[in-house]
Amino acid sequence: MQETPQDLQPADAGETAEARQSWWRRLSGGLKRSSSALGAISDLVSKRFLDEATLEEIHDGLIRADLGSDTAARIVDVLSRTRQNAAITPDEVKAVVAAEVEKALADVAQPLTIDAATKPFVILVVGVNGSGKTTTIGKLAAKFRAEGRSVMLAAGDTFRAAAIEQLKIWAVRSGTDFVARDAGADAAGLAFDALTMAKARGIDVVLLDTAGRLQNRSELMGELEKIVRVVKKVDATAPHAVLLVLDATVGQNALSQVEIFGKTVGVTGLVMTKLDGTARGGILVALAAKFALPVNYIGVGEGIDDLAPFSAHDFARAIAGLDE
What pLDDT was estimated at residue 169? Predict the structure, then answer.
């Protein structure tokens, strides 16, 4: 289903208390399914002491929540060392979960940095079908424009006429340059033309969309490699960032996506979308443990303000079901 942009004006860069509270409401609301799944774990302890059997159930629940074996083991170890065979409240369990999740994510919570000295700064956006690439590009374009940057959107998803039209809507509403070709055109050629034009016009940022592709289709992944090769003919240092957009609802499948896209095009950062529609937000923790790739942004809805830089502290408290 084609999405259309909503509310293209993000909150002011200088975060107000009101904007902060608004984001927290969206984040905690979006992660309610994940926090509810973890809530079942803390409910275990409201009825019994923290014995070996309960600890084992907690461990299994954390694994089912996609937090990964390493983080699950650390949480159970903390509980075992501090409160085994003693009474513990659900909120105390949530606090331990939040603390360990924050530790696991602290190093990967890194904002996307645009090098103002590099013009254009080229961001290649990749991912499987339906992950939310085009919408993410539109939201990023609006954010960069709000920061005073000039932006070009390049419609590199030449397989789908709807994707070209969708990106064009974002370009018009966010006031960005837009480059496209007819559906079915060569995506690498489109990328070459877009970067050449952006360079001539002194554009600050180019956001290059690509067709969604399954990570197990070698011929489609080969096309991505071709795009990268052609981009380097315009600027040997480009692309300067490669963002992999991941749909949180896929859970463990995200691990193979990161691995294969990383090998193919050298992913530099992750964007996790659709956290508001799944109980599997914990997959971010497993991804951090395995790949240690920066998580640049997360999305908890379709509005422009529902995509924001990733905060390990906020995410950990929201997913554990704690207040801000």
Answer: 94
